[in-house]
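Hi C.,

You asked whether I'd gotten around to modeling the 227-residue construct. I have! Everything is below, sequence then structure, no commentary in between.
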Amino acid sequence: MSAPEERVTEQATLQLYERWAESYPPVPHNPLMRAEQEAVRRLWPAVRGRHVLDLACGSGRYARLLAAAGAASVLALDRSRNMLRQVEGATAVQGSMMSLPFAGGSFDAVICGLAVGHAQDLTAWMREVARVLAPRGALVYSDFHPQAAAAGHARRFRDAAGDTHAVPHHRHDIAEHRRAAAAAGLTVEAMEEVRVGLELREDFAGSADFYRRWHGMPVVLAIRAVN
C-alpha cells in the first residue's frame, strides 16, 4: 500500500471509530472481547506501583483495569477524541500509536488491545513501542488472529442509524510478529491463542452454528514481549 493510500485508510479508520464511539462501552461488550481480555490478563506483567500506557486505548477498558490493579500512573492514548471522552482512571492523550508523544523509557509496561492490526508497518509500530519502554519493560498486546482474518472474519459494528461497517485491518502472521519484535530489540516471551469453542465458548445468538462451523479456529492472538 502506498503512502497516500495508507493515509486514506488511516483517516477512514479514524472516522469509523469516531462514529463507533457512540455505542462503544468502556468494558468488553461481546464474547470475543471478553475472551480476548482474559487472554491478555493471563500475560500481564506486575503493574502495581509502575508507570503504564494503555496504547490505542479506545474507550479505556484496559486503563480502568490498570488503575484498579494499582499502577502508579496510567496514560491512555488514542487517535479518536470521541473514544477518549469515556476514559476514566487515567490521563487521556490524543495521538497516533505510530508516533508516540512520550520520551524514551517512559513506561514500565505497555498494554494494547486489538489495535495493532491498524498498523500497516508492524516493525515500525514495534520499534516505537520499544522506544518508550523502560529497561526490563513489557509489552502485552492482542490482535485478530491471522487465520481468522484469512478466513474472511472482520471487525464490524452497527452505528446509531443501523448501518453496518467493517473496520480496515492489516493481517500480520505470527512469524511477522516475531520478526518485528526482534527488529525492535524485544523478545517474544509468551503467546496465547483464543480458539473457537475452546477459549471462546460463551453463548450468543447463532453461537451453536458458529461453534460447529469454526471449531478450533484461532480468532485472537495475544503476545507478551520484553526488552
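If it helps when you're writing up: DSSP finds eight helices and nine strands in the chain.

Thanks,
B.
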